[in-house]
Amino acid sequence: MTRETILITGASGFIATHVVNAFLRAGYAVRGTVRSEEKAAKVHRTFSEYSERLSFVIVPDIAQPYAFDEAVQGVVGVIHTACPFKAEVEDKERDLLQPSVLGTFNILNSIQKYAPQVRRVVETSSFAGMLDISKGNWPGHVYSEADWNPMTYAEATNANTPDIATYCAGKAMAERAAWDFMARENPPFDLVTICPPCVYGPNANATADLVKLNTSSAEIYQLMSPMSKPSDPLPPPVVWVWVDVRDVAEAHLKAFEVPEAGGQRFLVSAGNHSSQKIADILRDHVAEVQDRVPLGKPHSGMGGREVYGVDASKSEKVLGLRYHPLEETVVDAARAFLRLEQVV
């Protein structure tokens, strides 16, 4: 039996590895893009049981024209997760905005030219593309698919704008570029965008490195690493809402498979959280690290802060998502980190 092939870009990433797993388990053949043969080999080892259904194309730079021309040929769907992120950059436009926007345009353009059989593209966008940083904690506001990050290109490239704010603006610009492409070109495929906030959960790929964790994973690990101690202050999370990486992967699979998802944008989130809640879970449920974890003000929840909320009901209704509880997510993430500590 010939299996349908799905292209998953950035296949060595934290989220993408779980997306690859979701599609392989669902019976698809997966073609992944990675930046080097070394990454391809490591991801292949992660999924050795599916080796006959997993292949790779090397794409060193997604911002280069024609980067995806080869990769898209022969696939029926594309899951575009690739988007470089650096906490500090030399050039905001070159290092943050262009890779995000051009990478999105390049893959849609390649699909239109070389992959007429593609039915649907699912793009990994971000809650960052919804977040209005100027509003701060914005008590009383409930973010939904109707919200867009309002930062302009001029503001995003301003030298005084923090790099993280530029990254957030770039996610919005990349997603808008995708929807603009669809409206302008009217291609034969449709588009779905998935917008997760802080993504937590177990690192499941062979490229995971405790020294170079993705930003959201590092948020949890810094609270339990051998370098942390009970007297350390608790840092605020990047944003006050979260989701389990396995639920994000399921969202991508359902976004491709569910007919009604076509042409829609989905906020995927399990709700609010805080560093205090994560620290409490680590201390109460992961005995190996309880003496490392900062105390803060135990079991004070959100610490008396009033912050924005989220409405992810659309993802539950249309995609059928059921979200992991924070306790399970944090414990599973911690167990994965502890396994990685044994490897070092």
Automatic annotation (TrEMBL):
Keywords, ordered alphabetically: Oxidoreductase
InterPro entries named in the record: Epimerase_deHydtase (IPR001509), NAD(P)-bd_dom_sf (IPR036291), NAD(P)_dehydrat-like (IPR050425)
Alphabetized SUPFAM superfamilies for the sequence: NAD(P)-binding Rossmann-fold domains
Domain NAD-dependent epimerase/dehydratase: start-end pairs: 6-264
GO molecular function, one term: oxidoreductase activity, acting on the CH-OH group of donors, NAD or NADP as acceptor
UniProt family annotation: Belongs to the NAD(P)-dependent epimerase/dehydratase family. Dihydroflavonol-4-reductase subfamily.
PANTHER family with a match to the protein in the record: NAD DEPENDENT EPIMERASE/DEHYDRATASE, STEROL-4-ALPHA-CARBOXYLATE 3-DEHYDROGENASE, DECARBOXYLATING
Protein name as it appears in the record: NAD-dependent epimerase/dehydratase domain-containing protein
Organism whose genome encodes this protein: Aspergillus avenaceus
